[in-house]
């Protein structure tokens, strides 16, 4: 199978010019943003009618005055006609509470400790319309994004990043060659993305880059042309990825150069082209990727026909490790992946080193564990335990535990030959089912996020049942 590598996307130039169509009231744009003629025409209609899709009336003068600049809670559209305006006005530590409606805008949150929360996960929709780059862009510490849907963006549904300058948020792969400098841009600290549905986005559904001490939990992502969930470029990350569903993406979960204290547990990565990857990437800092705990997940049936194509053509893989070091892949259910349950390879001249694949339940894979690394960057120190009863390629992988001797990778042509279906446009992937909303009192301003994330006891996590989170997905 081809090596797993980064995708460089080229999109319509309009992706960099977000416009905001308010759900009610006058249209407005952020400084420097030029609205399209279609957007201007729609804005004129809205000004005449006084209401946009969603049908909520203009806020009263008294209500708007009580939720002016610096307000602790701003309701959209009752207090502010757009989420963008609410984000510009909300106080540090405040709450933006969004009522049902479709909001055609790209939201930037640059005020610390703000919570962006929808009142209904399935009907509060930030829609990129296939034109705007990002749905929600977080560049401030301590921000929560929860209980809403982000869809149809040419890059990312939700982007959380410490990389930003006067031109706005940045991430790797802007031109495919620039290596971003984390010394110039210190990492964002403390974040939470929870109960978010990310559908039909051109790169990543939910994307944390150069960020520390965060939680990505109870989200659903489908139709991503790169990966549904992505954690990249951090050391000592302190990030927990838990309770998420990824299906019908090119890759369900991707981890590039995110190392140490990243825990991925209790997720369902099923029905993608590739379930999950742990990779070293020369396009990001902090080589090599290392020491991620991937424990207690369901990684099944990754051979989706209703998904965008993976950039390097990979298909039918459960978990891919490319140049990763000392990762723990433990107590997962890895089944029904027609190429391989786990595939190990190199990233250019970076070998895979010391990865432990232990305590998992395998079944119905083309090959359970395969090492297809090139001879120039041979894999060393892989531990597959227990190896009895597993299909291994090459068979010598069974003797790998306890030794640092390099192994000779098999020819990828020895993997099962598959008829790889043609990928579809990310905008045409069928939408997933409705998802459960956040419980409790949604109007309360939450306390500040803690300085660090409490991680689960990995030793107490069993192999999950095949039905984990299945009721909320299609797979």
From TrEMBL:
Keywords for the protein's UniProt record, in alphabetical order: Repeat
The keyword Manganese appears for this protein: no
Domain Right handed beta helix: 135-281
InterPro entries linked to this entry: Beta_helix, PbH1, Pectin_lyas_fold, Pectin_lyase_fold/virulence, SCF-Subunits/Alg-Epimerases
Protein name as annotated: Nitrous oxidase accessory protein NosD
Organism expressing this protein natively: Compostimonas suwonensis
């Amino acid at each position: 199978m081809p090596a797993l590598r980064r995708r460089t996307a080229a999109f319509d130039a309009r992706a960099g010019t977000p416009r905001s169509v308010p759900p009610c009231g006058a249209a407005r744009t952020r400084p420097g943003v030029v609205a399209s003629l279609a957007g201007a025409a729609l804005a004129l209609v809205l000004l005449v009618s006084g209401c946009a899709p969603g049908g909520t009336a203009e806020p009263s003068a008294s209500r708007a005055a009580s939720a002016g600049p610096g307000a602790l809670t701003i309701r959209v559209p009752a207090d502010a006609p757009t989420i963008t305006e609410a984000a510009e006005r909300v106080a540090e530590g405040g709450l933006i509470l969004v009522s049902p409606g479709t909001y055609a805008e790209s939201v930037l949150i640059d005020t610390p400790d703000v919570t962006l929360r929808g009142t209904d996960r399935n009907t509060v929709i930030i829609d990129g319309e296939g034109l705007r780059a990002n749905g929600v862009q977080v560049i401030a510490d301590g921000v929560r994004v929860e209980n809403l849907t982000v869809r149809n963006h040419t890059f990312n549904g939700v982007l959380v990043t410490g990389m930003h300058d006067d031109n706005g948020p940045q991430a790797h792969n802007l031109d495919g060659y620039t290596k971003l400098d984390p010394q110039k841009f210190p990492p964002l600290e403390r974040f939470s993305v929870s109960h978010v549905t990310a559908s039909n986005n051109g790169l990543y559904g939910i994307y944390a880059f150069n960020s520390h001490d965060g939680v990505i939990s109870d989200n659903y992502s489908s139709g991503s042309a790169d990966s549904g969930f992505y954690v990249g470029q951090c050391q000592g990350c302190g990030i927990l990825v838990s309770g998420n569903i990824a299906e019908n993406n090119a890759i369900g979960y991707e981890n590039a150069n995110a190392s140490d204290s990243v825990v991925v547990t209790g997720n369902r990565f099923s029905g993608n082209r590739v379930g999950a990857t742990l990779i070293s990437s020369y396009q990001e800092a902090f080589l090599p990727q290392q020491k991620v705990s991937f424990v207690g997940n369901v990684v099944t049936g990754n051979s989706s026909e209703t998904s965008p194509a993976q950039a390097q053509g990979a298909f039918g893989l459960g978990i891919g490790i490319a140049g990763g070091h000392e990762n723990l892949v433990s107590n997962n259910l890895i089944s029904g992946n027609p190429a391989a349950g786990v595939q190990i390879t190199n990233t250019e001249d970076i070998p895979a080193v010391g990865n432990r694949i232990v305590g998992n339940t395998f079944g119905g894979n083309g090959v359970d564990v395969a090492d297809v690394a090139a001879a120039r960057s041979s894999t060393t120190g892989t531990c597959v335990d227990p190896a009895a009863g597993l299909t291994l390629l090459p068979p010598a992988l069974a003797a790998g535990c306890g030794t640092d001797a390099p192994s000779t990778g098999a020819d990828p042509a020895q993997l099962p030959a598959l008829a790889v279906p043609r990928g579809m446009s990310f905008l045409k992937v069928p939408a997933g089912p409705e998802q459960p909303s956040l419980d409790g009192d949604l109007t309360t301003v939450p306390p500040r996020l803690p300085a660090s994330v409490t991680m689960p006891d990995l030793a107490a996590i069993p192999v999950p049942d095949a039905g984990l989170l299945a009721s909320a997905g299609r797979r």
